[in-house]
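Bit of a strange request maybe. I'm writing a small parser for structure token strings and I need a real example to test against, not something I typed by hand. Could someone generate the tokens for this chain?
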Amino acid sequence: MKKIVLSFFLLAWMAAGAFAQTGNIVGMVYDSTSRAPLAGATVTLPDQKQGAITDGLGRYTLSNLPTGTVTLRVSYVGYQATTTTREVKASETAEADFYLSRSTLNLNEVTIASGRDPSRADLINQIDRQLRPVNSAQDLLTLVPGLFIAQHAGGGKAEQIFIRGFDVDHGTDFQISVDGLPVNMVSHAHGQGYADFHFVIPETVDALRVYKGPYNVQFGDFATSGAGAFTTRNFLEKNEIKVEAGQFDTYRALATVNLLGGSQPRLSKRQENAYVAAEYVFTNAYFDRPQKFNRYNLFGKYHGLLTERTSLTVSGSTFNAIWDASGQIPQRSIDDGTISRFGSIDDSEGGNTSRSNANLILTTGVGRKTIFKNQLYYVNYKFSLYSNFTFFLEDQENGDEINQVDDRNIYGYQGTLEHEGRLGDKPLRTTVGVGTRIDDADITLRRAVRRNLLDTLVTGALYQQNASAYLDEKLELTNRLTLNLGLRADYFDFKFANRLDNSQSGRANQFRVSPKLNLYYTLSPSVQLFAKSGIGFHSNDARAVVVGQLENTLPKAFGSEVGATFKAGRGAVFNVALWGLDLENELVYVGDAGVTELSGATRRLGTDFSARIQLTRLLFADVDVNWNRGRLRDAPEGENYIPLAPRFTTVGGVSIQQPNGFNASLRYRHVDSRPANETNSVVARGYFLLDAVAQYVRPKYRFGLSVENVLNVEWNQAQFDTESRLRGEEPVSELHFTPGTPFFLKGSFSFYF
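Reply from user aminoacidic:
Good idea to test on real output. This should exercise your parser:
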């Protein structure tokens, strides 16, 4: 017994001695120009294969380091990597702050995996933000690898989105946010998940994190095929005035101005930055009937450190657009010469929309290992759209034009608590989130003739609330293997009061639990393997939910995938994934017709491949290839195609990047032909397009030239199999489409001060 006791104390003494031979390093990472903290920077110890990611306040912690001199390396895409050394002493904490300077892109400095946050969803997109030119708000969406868009209402309507075998329509199965502010609209007058991104000014966007599939617990409603989380800049490097002019009476003016300290942000203990950005866009577009598209955007943001541990971000924006549209046209009218490819059957389509946002985020550090973030937001939104998809199918005298109106307020809160702790001797990152979103809206559907209103089909008051909570755990089982467990709970309260038909009014609620399980294995500092699985969902329109079919209120998506992110050589980054997704039977409200439709369960299997290659110091190449096979699960063979679901897409290009000189990019995009209906009897035509951009950049100014559709290809943008009737004919079901942009030349000039 005495020997056992002595052995126990000996082991305890040895363990204590071993623990005493370790120390810690803590610090901050800043932008060298603004002194603003950089969240998401990678801090590594190359010799010891350890690392960390800076938190929302730019802080990092490296714990339990062996004593002695260590080398620290800090990197962030678009910044010059830097290294330093520190002496680690037993039971002591050393400090090391870093100030990173912006530089040209260098893929050799990109870090694949870094221990504490192995799920670096933003890596490819950080590279793309440096490589790919962005000319408009919709271009920002195409930074998502494998995502394609189509516009079919004169530029003022939200784009139709295609990704991972989904025709997402305007956002039903892809969640979009900006600074945590939701973009998708629930129970929208035009369609479920409607995501109008045009209120974002491209020059204000700093980063994009892409999360494909339903594997991330922080995303709930609509995040089935994935989610895109955009963040805006906390500071401006320079003030800018920009003007653009192009074919088809296209003009754009932009101004971005620092509000504190002129072009140099205020350097103080509070580290404050504030700026405003304003944008005006006009175009008549390439259609026979001038589109008279006008859009105004105004955005302002303040970001500052109230204390060393607390940051405050306040932003506000307002957006307004008005336009005419030529709408979708039937192929037969072009074939018989009734109209040209750029003509219209009903040229009274179009509309107007506006959105104003207020967003407040308070981030507080508690000690070195805990971050508490509170966000409050408010949105005021208005929408009125005139459309005519079937011409004279239903009403041979007046036509089938409809007017959809949405007038709503959105109130929301999101709170998160992130903590770096330990489970035994294993590092554990815990994130807890709670939130609520309330939509209070008036929704109306009317019949119209050339924008003269006739009878009202649907009008009513919507109240919809989504309360949510989630727990996310990332546990480092070894220095190579990380386990990520997540559990999300969502509660929905649906209420719709139909002012015309009380039998179509009602209230319903439903609860959904969504578990997630992900594994990340760091094979080497340049190779990370992953296996992901999870359940997601999207809500259905409240107007359909409250009339009784509750079993389809929140159809689930079951997803899984395996893959790898890796570097080859010094300048090539690759990502490859094999994935599958099953979507339950769902109930869809069709805003164009004011009716509900029931669609069956679907299964999609696919693969994604991305490559970013630095060919020389200044020359880069990139390519994304996406293939999938999707089918309706309950339909017979030959009648089980998923309409408009893309099967094969690819984008890519080559770019020359110089810090102060000539930059250029030649890019392609391709979508293959795909079924437009369940039987594949009507085919949506694929296309291959080339776009080019060239810029000459100096410290005080920049000249730019861009060409869309360099080869002037005739291509169809939005396409549908639609039954319609023209005057004097019987109904015909065939391909209807909106023609894509022809050769389009645009120039720009920016002045920096």
